[in-house]
């Protein structure tokens, strides 16, 4: 074991494992869990010097950071908490880190609820939304519309390969929303019945591109062709500061076992072939801004092309500036 591994609390390691294995998933939920894990590290730290405490917290942040690459809410959350780590003694450092992590979690929940109110204003009584994957930001818009007394129906895409659509459907059913669950390939057919496509985001790039669950871009292109507006619900913690300086967002490639079993692979592949069957499983894709009608944040709704103005306001011109609430 390296020193870094020794320094990281078992609760942090287990949170990191939950994120990597997608038992904890979705950009906002991942950010919340990561902030909570840093607070636990701070609480349980046995460091006796200020330097050792800081090293431990950074090691914990690195362990969490290395779990999944696409949702920028994760590094944004880690940066936010580490920035608040202040003090001249271990006790002060501990208290400030825990306070900052708790403030982050509070602001995250408040931002989602504010965003929901903004998003619900786009939904009229009787509207039908089509969803993809499971996004707590997107669902908060539906929840706020329901609280306003509007009747909303949903067409929920299954979302292969991990079927996060089932989580969305379960939540909507709990709220009493009529749900039609469809396979991903049926989306274009059912767009005729939809008034909005409503999705979340893992990252939003400076040009207004939306990085979200694989299949979002195809859905958005089909929606444009059918004249159905595409609404992206994304708190500002989903804004990706590095993209202001031209960096692209890394798309996570997941295990082929999510798509084919060993037996299926053996069944498909020719055992005498010179090369192996290639199976690829990208978890996310990029929807260009021209297919997105509105990005709904806790600060209001933006056309995708103008999101860069908000990014500059929040992060400044340089990506070395950490995320600010
Ligand atoms: O693409 C996904 C989840 O992908 P995965 O299941 O691979 O994590 C969600 O749409 C966004 O993360 C937004 O979710 P939220 O609005 O809850 O942050």
Topology:
Elements: H1 3-7, H2 10-20, H3 27-44, H4 50-65, H5 73-83, H6 90-120, E1 128-131, H7 136-147, E2 153-157, H8 165-174, E3 179-182, H9 187-190, E4 196-199, E5 203-204, E6 210-213, H10 216-226, E7 230-233, H11 262-268, E8 284-287, E9 294-297, E10 300-302, H12 307-315
Parallel strand pairs: 1-2, 1-4, 2-3, 4-7, 7-9
Antiparallel strand pairs: 5-6, 6-8, 9-10
Helix pairs in contact: 2-3, 2-4, 3-4, 3-5, 3-6, 4-5, 5-6, 6-7
Protein name: Ribose 1,5-bisphosphate isomerase
Function: Catalyzes the isomerization of ribose 1,5-bisphosphate (R15P) to ribulose 1,5-bisphosphate (RuBP).
Catalytic activity: alpha-D-ribose 1,5-bisphosphate = D-ribulose 1,5-bisphosphate
Task: Provide structural commentary.
Helix content is 45%, strand content 12%. The chain is an alpha/beta fold. The strands form 2 sheets. It has a 7-stranded mixed β-sheet with strand order 3-2-1-4-7-9-10. The protein has a 3-stranded antiparallel β-sheet with strand order 5-6-8, covered by helices on one side. It folds into 2 domains: 3-113, translation initiation factor eif-2b, domain 1 (Four Helix Bundle (Hemerythrin (Met), subunit A)); 116-245 and 285-315, Translation initiation factor eif-2b, domain 2 (Rossmann fold, 3-Layer(aba) Sandwich), CATH 3.40.50.10470. Helix 7 links the parallel strand 1 and strand 2. Bound molecules: ribulose-1,5-diphosphate (RUB). The site of ribulose-1,5-diphosphate has 18 residues, from helix 3, helix 7 and strand 6.
